[in-house]
Amino acid sequence: MGKRQFTIQTSKETIPVEGQAHRNVAIRYLMKRRRSLIMTKDMRKAEQLYCDLPHTVKIIGKQITRSYSIKWEREGIENYEGSRFVFTIHEENEEGD
Hints:
There is one protein chain. The chain is α+β, with helices and mostly antiparallel strands and about 100 residues long. It has one domain (about 5-95). Helices cover about 25% and strands about 40% of the residues. It has 2 helices and 5 strands. A 5-stranded antiparallel β-sheet has the order 2-1-3-4-5, with helices on one face. The longest helix is centred in the N-terminal third of the chain and has 17 residues, at about 20-40. The mean pLDDT is about 85.
């Protein structure tokens, strides 16, 4: 299966990307956002990044748009301040053109 064009839309930004499936594109984007938290040692910066994390993501394909709600959780606050953030993703709806 080849890569297709998608657009990631959050409340703050719109990003064109390539991927194979709507959910995989969303997870890859969220993992990159989480990775920036993991690498942050400064508590204030980690807190700011955590507040800026998206809680809804819309993945726009050529024919189908899928929306996902994201629940972010903190698991701990030791060592690296941002290293203990996990998320769960749930599909909200499916729209076809």
